[in-house]
Amino acid sequence: MASERAEAAVTARRRIPTQARSRRKVEHILDTAARLVVERGVESLTTRDIALASGVPVASLYQYFADKEGVLLALAERDMAEMDAQVVTDLGSLRVLTLEGLVRTTMEAFVSVYHRRRAFVEIYLRGRSNAAVHQFGREHNARVAQMLRDFAIEQGLAQPTMPQASATLAVEIGDRVFQLAYEHDDDGDRELVEEGITLVTAYLERYATPEGIAGIAR
Question: Which Gene Ontology terms cover its molecular function (predicted)?
């Protein structure tokens, strides 16, 4: 499963703490790393910088993270989990479901997390040259595509014959839109985001049911 491979990519690079004190230390390290990423970018960041700014010995940092990529992946995992939760919450609040609403709500949920998590923009949207982050992102996109396709079909918005490849491509297109929108703008280029929503919606509506176009009251 894509989600299992993505999780393995993170856990293989760090030890998951079980004690509350250790969990707080890891969260502190991650919060510090997130601040440094925003200040300095992904490429110049080092584990020594993170340890020094966190006020912990380098050896202590290595107890939880094998290397810098382990820290970056842990940050990406944390913020992606928040993003997934935001999508579920926002979709659950819709009173009328349409395929267009599904696309818009999902992409707007991503935008709201990008605004809250500046380091995620640097790591995930601008730091994709890092091989570990790139692979983790692809795994996450595959999982999101599967989830959204299943949801659209279960809710009667899309035909059961919608290919998984189409859902995957739609998510990858949306991902690329965000990369372009946030390439030089910390707040994101709103026009590009809107165009991306229109593009992905038009692509997926080929598989929409009549109810998926007109709307389904909840």
Answer: DNA-binding transcription factor activity; transcription cis-regulatory region binding
